[in-house]
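Please go through this chain and its backbone structure tokens and walk me through the local backbone shapes. Keep your notes short.
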Amino acid sequence: MSTITTTSTSTSTSTTIPTTPDEEAGSALATAVRSDTDVSHRVTLRRVTSSEWLKFRSVRSNLVALLGSAAAAIGLGALFASLAGSDDGPQRLGNDALSLSLGGFEMSQLVVAILGVALVAGEYQTGLVRTWFAAAPSRLRVLAAKIGVYGASAFVVTLVAATLAFLAGQAVFSGEALTLVDDGVLQALVGTAFYAACIGVMGIGLGFLLRSTAAGAGAVVTTLMIAPILVNLLPDSIADPVGKILPSNAGSALRGVSTNSELLSAGWGLAVLLAWVAAIVGAAAISLRRRDA
């Protein structure tokens, strides 16, 4: 049994109020909960995003992978454009100056997606994600911050790289070169950057779903590279409608750099691509709410 002594300022008398240990523990717990609630109110999306951006740019391997894939795409675009009209270039791109200049991004965007997986899965494997969730109790806020930071980074880097790849490709193209104001050029550049951002966000979602870099990378390669090949082996009645809604083909339709007349329109390609992003991110959000870290 302990006591709490209160003093009245008007009568200068003291009153002893008995309390039990359970009441004292309850008071301490209420104070702790109130303190935790005050702290959680200060963990805003803006601050979580700022922390995520600081962490992303502080890890050298993230910047090396993202900028390295962009540099490789620029070099490959210039190489493909210089081989136009010969038998040495990638025949699937044809001899179109725009398609050849941006052809290198078919491989670089695979790196973008796998890096998105690694950004999340790596934290699960090291246990860092538990620290994140302890500092920011709202797991969906962490998901939104990672999507915002990496999606925006992938978009900006790819847009700059696509512009440089286009300019470099037109400089070495043996045929009639294009300019930035020609029809379809800006759509192709912005579409390439937007597609990179979308598959990067899909990689983030797969990282939360699978929590393994190897499994996530396998899912990315299967979805973006193996699935289109397997679909082509199916009967045309099945291959045509299924092939159109694959992420890679939807991205090609959005960019408008493919000569395949069986692709969706740019508008439908955008809708299908956003549907893929919404499905994977939505599944990741449900997983975060139901599964332990």
Remarks:
- Residues 121 and 212 are 5 Å apart (CA to CA).
- The first strand starts at residue 2 and ends at 7.
- The chain is about 75% helix and 5% strand.
